[in-house]
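Training component of the fellowship. As part of building independent skills, the fellow (R.M.) carried out the full modelling exercise for a liganded target. The chosen ligand was heme C. The inputs are recorded below so that the supervisory panel can assess the work.
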Amino acid sequence: MAEEIKNIDYEQGLPGAIDLHDSVKRENSLSEGGEGKVGITVMVIGALILILGGGHLFSSSNGFRSGIYISDNYTPEPRPSLGGDEEAGEQVAWIESWMSDGKKVYNNCIACHQASGLGIPGQFPPLIGSEWVDGGTSRLGAIMLHGISGPFKVGGQTYNQLMPAWNNLSDDKIAQVLTYVRREFGSLSEGNDGVVTVEMIKDAREKYSGHSGPYTEAGLLEIPVDESLSGSKVDLETGEALGGS
Ligand code: HEC
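Fellow's submitted model of the complex:
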């Protein structure tokens, strides 16, 4: 006999499974966050914020143009000059800056040889008219690296003090100050630009590395008067080495 299909729950007076699911679905749909409807007031307030905020941004942004902080009658100051009378924008030749650096290094020498290069009679020899400055660069390199102890004759006058050694200055600085001394105070022979380069100072350091203590006059006289340190000539505009030497 076919068994009668009965709703057992019903028979027991309990709610059926379908009823249970229905109620669970209903409750969940009410409480699920973020899916409820937005109230009309919230929408109106939101719209107002967008309209007012956007309007304010638009009216005070000045069209998002660059330069909004520069007022209409502003004209920029011209670029300050670096001094001297060089034309604006003109490139300074290498030799000019090499000489002006040399002049700064020469500040080490003015206490004795004076800014004028004339020295102090009887105490410190002049660099102007000095046969030591006008000759080749080898003697000058030796003098700078080791100094001199007197008695020492310059232009027929005898000086008897101590010329300090400057070997703790960089190669650049020694080259710069010797260039300055030769071009400013020397009387150079024709075709001699008086430039002393870093390469020449490196040569001097090597050549006279065997010497210790200050030179005497006799020691310096052993170096031929017109012997020069080796190193290629340079382009006075660019400071770059020229081919050959
Ligand atoms: C403390 C003083 C003193 C200072 C600083 C000094 N010298 Fe001299 N220099 C002398 C004296 C003094 C002699 C002469 C030799 C001697 O009596 O010892 C001399 C000699 C020379 C000579 C060879 C002689 C001549 O008159 O041409 C040269 C070149 C020279 N100095 C360059 C320099 C340079 C460049 C500097 C700076 C980097 C310098 N001196 C700084 C005192 C000084």
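The panel noted the following from the submitted structure. The two ends are 128 Å apart (CA to CA). The pocket of heme C is lined by residues 108-109, 111-113, 124-127, 130, 132-133, 140, 143, 148-150, 152, 154, 159-164, 166, 177, 181 (CB under 6 Å).
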